[in-house]
Amino acid sequence: MEINVFKLCSGLKFLGYLMILLVAAIIAVSYDAIVIVTCGPQLLRGGAHSVLAFAIIMIFHLLLIMLLWSYYRVVFKDPGSVPENWRAVLPEEALEAGSSLNDRPDCVVDTVGLDRRAFCNYCQNGKPPRCHHCSVCQRCVLKMDHHCVWVVNCVGARNYKFFLLFLLYTFMVTTMDTLVLLPAFINFFGEVKDHSSSPSDLAVIFLAFVLNLAFALSLLCFLVMHASLLSSNTTSIEVYEKRGAARWKYDLGRKKNFEQVFGTKKALWFFPLFSKEDVDNIPALHGLDFPIRADPES
């Protein structure tokens, strides 16, 4: 009896559900430490203390709303699935549609990636360019970047922007929490010794500070890495594929690379959504067609 070992990876989905609970727990602890324990009492003092506390609480809630919105979108948005019985079009067919895919003379349709032999033995279906099979989700994902256990979903063509915004807003929230809690954390050991504060409040402050500091530092590394990938129009998987290439064929320049993920509407760049115009006019957002450089080897 033949056993597909990749199916065993589907058990990682259960770990993902635990990660969602962990995210909720960290948010709850941070909310308690910032709003209830630290800034809440400052609102009653009056003067500059109240103004500062009110500003911190408002900014915290604004960032938290954007974080949760982005998190919801990356968790529940399909990263992109290959249509049933999909086949790679012939180069001449792609060139006929080239004018609708590119508006620059230095970009062409990815006829190199349109290979009829690209086939997934697990899905029994064709594989578009930049598509990879996820052993956890048990399906092919369009422009797959990676499977993220924190969101119980793959990160691909149609939710990569939401994932990046989730990283950004989480980093901003955790950094803000760390700075706000820093004075209380510095006085932590003195207050423990003098019993001048509630043990539960001190425990919440200590735990929230350590968690937020750890996440802020780790997220900074992820943000730097994905900013580099975004600027070169590369996924985490493609980092290994592009080694040795003189110029990555999907690298259209930083501006075009950014728009392939975030769209062209500047007003929506920091919101987890796209304009209808971008969805209609940017094929890369659908994950099936990608323009490439006319001189990828130059």
UniProtKB/TrEMBL annotation:
What EC class is this?
transferase
Q: Which InterPro entries match?
A: Palmitoyltrfase_DHHC, PFA4/ZDH16/20/ERF2-like
Q: What GO cellular-component annotations does this UniProt entry give?
A: endomembrane system
Its predominant location is membrane
The entry's keywords? Acyltransferase, Membrane, Transferase, Transmembrane, Transmembrane helix
Which reaction does this chain catalyze?
A: L-cysteinyl-[protein] + hexadecanoyl-CoA = S-hexadecanoyl-L-cysteinyl-[protein] + CoA
The secretion signal range is none
What residue ranges are annotated as transmembrane? 14-39, 51-72, 162-190, 202-225
Domain of life, per lineage: Eukaryota
EC number from the UniProt entry = 2.3.1.225
Any single GO molecular-function term of the entry would be:
protein-cysteine S-palmitoyltransferase activity
Q: Which family does it belong to?
A: Belongs to the DHHC palmitoyltransferase family.
Under the heading PANTHER family, the entry gives: PALMITOYLTRANSFERASE ZDHHC16
| Protein name (Swiss-Prot/TrEMBL) | S-acyltransferase
